[in-house]
TrEMBL record:
Protein name stated in the entry: Uncharacterized protein
Ranges annotated as spanning the membrane: 132-152, 164-187, 207-226, 238-259
UniProt feature, compositional bias: Pro residues: 1-10
Organism in which the protein naturally occurs: Embleya hyalina
Ranges for region Disordered: 1-25
UniProt keyword Transmembrane, yes or no: yes
Keywords, alphabetical: Membrane, Transmembrane, Transmembrane helix
Length: 273
C-alpha cells in the first residue's frame, strides 16, 4: 500500500516543525519508531505483525533519506510504520509467514529512495509556502513600521531632494514588486493544482526571488535611514527608528536562515559524461 497523496502533492503528515536545521535522520529515529508503536496504530495490529527485520531495515533506509526537522521526520516514520504494519497484517492472513508478509508489504510501498523523494518534495513545498508567505507578509509590515518611523520626525529634512533618495525609492518599488509577484507565484505553485501532480517540485525559484526582493527592500531602507541620519539627524524620531532597524536585521536573519534550510530541497545536478 503506497502512501496516499495529499492535496499538497505528497504523502504529508499533519504534524510539522519548520525551524530546525535540515539533516539526515539518525538511526535512533527509525529504531525508536519501529520498536514503539505510534499512537495511531492499534495494539492488535502491532501484535499481529511482530517487529520484523524487513520492515525495520526498510524504515532505517527511509529515515536516512528524509529531510526536515526531527519532529517532521518522526511523523513521517510513524505514518510509514502504520501503513507497513497494516499491509503486513493483511498479507499475513494470506501467507501465514510474518517475514514474507513484511517483504510483501515493503514491495507494495516501493523503494525507500522513491518514498523518501515523495515525502521530501512535500516537505519542500511546505517550507517554500512558508517562505513566500513570510515574504508577502513582511512587505506591509515594513511599510507600516517605516512610514511611522520616518514621518514621526520633523518634515522636510532637506532643502533639496537628494539623488540618493530618488534612487532608494526606486529600489524600494522594484524590490516590493519583485517580492510580491514572486511570492504570489510561489504560493500558487505550492498550493495550486500543479502541487497535486506526481513529482511536483517545490517552487524554489519563486521562493528565492521573493526572498531576494524582501532583502533588497530591507537593505534599501537601512541605506536611506543611514543617509538621513548622517545628513539630517535632527529630522529623525530615533526612538521609533531604532526598533524599525532592529526589525530589519531580525527579518533578514530569519529569511536567510530559512532559505538555507530550503536549499536542501534543490534537485541534484547530474554530471555530464
Amino acid at each position: 500500500m503506497r502512501p496516499t497523496p495529499t492535496p499538497d502533492g505528497g504523502p504529508e503528515p499533519e504534524r510539522d516543525a519548520a525551524r530546525a536545521p535540515v539533516h539526515a535522520a539518525p538511526p535512533d529515529v527509525a529504531s525508536d519508531v519501529v520498536h514503539a508503536a505510534p499512537p495511531g496504530v492499534a495494539s492488535d495490529v502491532v501484535h499481529a505483525a511482530p517487529p520484523d527485520v524487513v520492515i525495520d531495515d526498510y524504515l532505517r533506509h527511509l529515515a536516512a533519506r528524509l529531510t526536515g526537522t526531527r519532529a517532521r521526520r518522526r511523523a513521517i516514520l510513524d505514518e510509514a510504520l502504520d501503513g507497513l504494519l497494516a499491509a503486513a497484517e493483511a498479507h499475513l492472513d494470506d501467507c501465514g509467514d510474518p517475514e514474507e508478509a513484511g517483504r510483501r508489504a515493503v514491495a507494495e510501498w516501493g523503494s525507500p529512495a522513491t518514498v523518501a523523494e515523495a515525502y521530501n518534495a512535500a516537505t519542500g513545498r511546505r517550507r517554500a509556502r512558508r517562505q513566500v508567505l513570510t515574504a508577502l507578509g513582511a512587505l506591509p509590515a515594513l511599510a507600516g513600521v517605516w512610514s511611522t518611523a520616518m514621518l514621526a520626525g520633523p518634515t522636510g529634512p532637506w532643502e533639496r531632494r537628494p539623488p540618493l533618495l530618488d534612487a532608494g525609492l526606486g529600489l524600494l518599488a522594484f524590490g516590493t514588486v519583485l517580492a510580491a509577484a514572486s511570492a504570489l507565484s510561489g504560493l500558487r505553485a505550492a498550493t495550486g493544482p500543479r502541487a497535486a501532480l506526481p513529482g511536483a517540485a517545490p517552487p524554489l525559484r519563486e521562493a528565492a526571488t521573493a526572498t531576494f526582493g524582501v532583502l533588497l527592500v530591507l537593505a534599501t531602507l537601512l541605506m536611506l535611514v543611514v543617509n538621513r541620519g548622517v545628513t539630517a539627524p535632527a529630522s529623525l524620531a530615533w526612538p521609533l527608528v531604532a526598533p524599525a532597524a532592529a526589525l530589519n536585521l531580525a527579518l533578514a536573519a530569519h529569511l536567510a536562515g530559512t532559505w538555507r534550510r530550503l536549499r536542501a530541497h534543490r534537485p541534484a545536478r547530474t554530471r555530464r559524461p
